[in-house]
Amino acid sequence: MNYSTTIANEHFDHLLLNAGGIFCESVDQLEKIQHAPGAGAVMTKSATAEKRAGNPNPRYFTYPDHHNTINAMGLPNLGIDYYLDYVLHHQLTLPTILSVVGLSEEEILANLKKIQASGYDGLIELNLSCPNVPGKPQIAYDFDTTDHLLDRIYSFFTGHLGVKLPPYFDMAHFDRIAKILNQYPLAYVNAVNSVGNGLVIDPETDRVVLMAKGGFGGLGGAQIKATALANVRALRLRLKPEIKIIGTGGVTTGRDVYDHLLCGADLVSVGSQLAIEGPSIFQRLEDELEAIFAEKHIESLDQVRGKLKRLDEAE
């Protein structure tokens, strides 16, 4: 199968990449993704202006089923200079997306100005959706703030920008965020981040499993697949074609990748299951996807991508 995909100025030979925040904090981790068979791209950790420790441990929990997680990481990262140095001065094997975030509007703008001044010409992802910083709301749930921020960004920024979105749960919200995003020359959207503010209880101790936020954290893994697919599908139906989509959420098998493609994803990222299995997961998922294509006699991604049918549509 030819997996060739293009977003803005980047060409991808494979469909899969790491979800932001997973296996990407250090150069050592990033390099493991760069050289992982089946990986198509690398996403760096969402970078704040300065190095950040994040929330106290325990802040990440894998369910006993090994397919689901909850976390309250709190944006631990090594700072924008660390990741900017990596994308500018390391020999990169794969397209590498530089993820940025900020704890204020001014910090976000400063990070993007620094990236633009550096001459970096690759894809940049603006994380508008971290649910695990105490006292800080998710920007993309405030539509007026999101519009205002993007307007300020595009008053100076000329790079290739994508945005990472939280999960939306109402059709009116899909309509409203798409109307805002369609006003701007975005390269892509990444849908979705973890489903915020779930709660997991340890049956042995009757305590929550996370330290920060009283145990509340972002849900990941197989449990969020339906929500992720709904967001990819709803956004694909509403966004202008030039805005591509990275589908994120619930990917544990090749069938999950296939379903994201059906809903309209251009690339698919893997989070919780990557943390559980490690970088060998990319080749496993691609092999499973290849088997589905062979069984269904699919010879081109165009036969799959965005081809999900409703029950009231003809075969």
From TrEMBL:
GO terms for molecular function: dihydroorotate dehydrogenase (fumarate) activity. GO terms for biological process: 'de novo' pyrimidine nucleobase biosynthetic process; 'de novo' UMP biosynthetic process. NCBIfam families: PRK02506.1. It comes from Oenococcus kitaharae DSM 17330. It is found in: Cytoplasm. It catalyses: (S)-dihydroorotate + fumarate = orotate + succinate. It comes from the Bacteria. Transmembrane segments: none annotated. InterPro entries: Aldolase_TIM, DHO_dehydrogenase, DHOD_1A, Dihydro_DH_chainA_dom2, Dihydroorotate_DH_1_2, Dihydroorotate_DH_cat, Dihydroorotate_DH_CS. The keyword Oxidoreductase applies. Homodimer. GO terms for cellular component: cytoplasm. Its EC number is 1.3.98.1. Its cofactor is FMN. Its main location: cytoplasm. Residues 4-292 form the Dihydroorotate dehydrogenase catalytic domain. Pathway: Pyrimidine metabolism; UMP biosynthesis via de novo pathway. Gene3D superfamilies: Aldolase class I, Dihydroorotate Dehydrogenase A, chain A, domain 2. This is dihydroorotate oxidase (fumarate). Pfam families: DHO_dh. Keywords: Cytoplasm, Flavoprotein, FMN, Oxidoreductase, Pyrimidine biosynthesis. The lineage of its organism: Bacteria, Bacillati, Bacillota, Bacilli, Lactobacillales. Belongs to the dihydroorotate dehydrogenase family. Type 1 subfamily.
